[in-house]
Design goal:
Belongs to the class-III pyridoxal-phosphate-dependent aminotransferase family. Keywords: Aminotransferase, Pyridoxal phosphate, Transferase. This protein has about 450 residues and is an alpha/beta fold. It folds into 2 domains: about 160 residues, Aspartate Aminotransferase, domain 1, CATH 3.90.1150.10; about 260 residues, Type I PLP-dependent aspartate aminotransferase-like (Major domain) (Aspartate Aminotransferase, domain 2), CATH 3.40.640.10. The structure holds 4'-deoxy-4'-aminopyridoxal-5'-phosphate. The site of 4'-deoxy-4'-aminopyridoxal-5'-phosphate has 14 residues, from helix 5.
Length: about 450
């Protein structure tokens, strides 16, 4: 297999022209790390407007899990587009919406029968989840995690805390969200050894219960099974069982945000399945519909029993997005989730080999195809080396590898789950050269 072909300087002439137009009219809030102007995509490959080829480690930020522009998904969309584009699924009926709700039920990460509310994005799924928990419990408070990311609308933003820029000047938000530390074994709180991180977080949770958040007032805990934007941080194995045990004592719901970690990304359909606990409510988006705007709040049927009209929207369950999601789930179930586990193992081992060559790679972490390398200045201090991380992303791009940052100093690898060993080998070769070049 050949390495990606870069034919022009980057950005090329056509890309430059589009980027200049973009700079005049698009919101200044957007943060593009690399000057990639996409023209077409296929499987794990991206082609820009100047004919350059790139290997994708982003999946359009965790979305195209079954491969970019998957022909089976495209075919289903084409067929649906000829029939009807929209007919508010909250006010009327159509089959794709029910079929998709049945498909989601088949893959639910809890035993009880489930129910589904459809949305159009991750943040909107989170809004539905937190509203549902409050509605069902009639309790005012929530607990979220430092470093968590759940979206940018005011409700989900009240939980989001992966970067301060996301919150600065936007207060007041929902005031009833209390944040506690996420169990990070690589950078544990000062004075806490990695083996005791779960103990620390559970102690902190109970301190919250005893002080600012009486547990009988807490509706739910909202948590990512693996923190995404916060830096691909995997909690220790004992964390979720211990957390669930505490929540069950007080009838507090566990909402897991699987927007980035779900839909096969980690080698199981949902990342929470790695940790042996059942959530009560799940937020889903990104990988569910291969790029069509679609999200869902999936909950136990005993939880999602709100009254008619208590929550609703216009576009949720859109038929074109629904047929894309139905095919996406079929594809995930027919081997891609297993492939994510298998190739993920190969990939992480190759990253660990790379780590042996560069002590600036402080940590290699992740599960399945949700992987990251974390750059440090000093491997003992584990201090964040974002300058180097940013340089490596640029160097990799020049060589045809598209990567994104996560957290303060990590590069994330979230490629389509169709990835093969040969692609990993190319990615590692380019990363090796890019780190060398970035170090100068
Ligand atoms: N939750 C998580 C875990 C996410 O990673 C994201 C997006 N990065 C969101 C919610 C928000 O999704 P969206 O951008 O579709 O609103």
């Amino acid at each position: 297999m050949n390495r990606p072909q870069i034919k022009t300087e980057l950005p090329g002439p056509k890309a430059k022209e589009i980027i200049e137009r973009d700079a005049k009219v698009m919101s200044t809030s957007l943060s593009r790390d690399v000057p990639l102007v996409v023209e077409r995509t296929q499987d794990v490959w991206i082609y820009d407007v100047d004919g350059n080829e790139f290997l994708d480690m982003t999946s359009g930020v965790g979305v195209t899990n079954v491969g970019h522009t998957n022909p089976q998904v495209v075919e289903a969309i084409k067929n649906q587009v000829e029939k009807f584009l929209h007919f508010a699924g909250t006010d009327f009926y159509y089959e794709p919406q029910v079929t998709l709700a049945e498909s989601l039920n088949d893959i639910r990460p809890f035993k009880e029968q489930g129910r589904v509310f459809f949305t159009n994005s991750g943040t909107e799924s989170v809004e539905a989840c937190i509203k549902l928990a409050r509605y069902k419990t009639r309790r005012p408070l929530y607990i979220g995690f430092l470093g968590g990311f759940h979206g940018r609308t005011m409700g989900s933003l009240s939980f989001t805390s992966s970067k301060v820029i996301q919150r600065r000047y936007f207060s007041p938000m929902m005031p009833q969200v209390v944040h506690i530390p996420f169990p990070d074994t690589y950078r544990p709180p000062e004075g806490v050894v990695p083996e005791k991180v779960t103990d620390f977080v559970i102690w902190y949770l109970n301190r919250m219960f005893e002080t600012v958040a009486p547990p009988e007032d807490v509706a739910a805990v909202l948590v990512e099974p693996i923190q995404g934007e916060g830096g691909y941080i995997v909690p220790p194995k004992d964390f979720f069982p211990r957390l669930k045990q505490e929540l069950d004592k007080h009838g507090i719901y566990l909402i897991v945000d699987e927007v980035q970690s779900g839909m096969g990304r980690t080698g199981k359909m949902f990342a929470i399945e790695h940790f042996g606990v059942e959530p009560d409510i799940v937020s889903i988006a990104k990988g569910i519909a291969s790029g069509m705007p679609m999200g869902a709040c999936l909950a136990k049927e005993s939880v999602m029993d709100w009254e008619e009209s208590a929550h609703s929207n216009t576009y949720g369950g859109n038929p074109v997005a629904a047929v894309a999601a139905i095919e996406t789930i079929k594809l995930l179930k027919s081997g891609l989730v297993e492939n994510a586990a298998k190739i993920g193992d190969y990939f992480i081992n190759q990253l660990r080999e790379l780590q042996k060559k560069y002590e600036v790679i402080g940590d290699v972490r992740g599960i399945g195809l949700m992987l990251a390398i974390d750059f440090v200045k000093d491997p003992v201090k584990r201090d964040y080396n974002y300058e180097l991380r940013n340089k490596v992303i640029q160097e990799a791009f020049k060589r045809g590898l598209v990567c994104l940052a996560a957290g303060k100093s990590a590069i994330r690898f979230a490629p389509p789950l169709t990835l093969k060993e040969e692609h990993v080998d190319i990615a590692i070769e380019i990363l090796d050269e890019s780190i060398k070049a970035a170090l100068g």
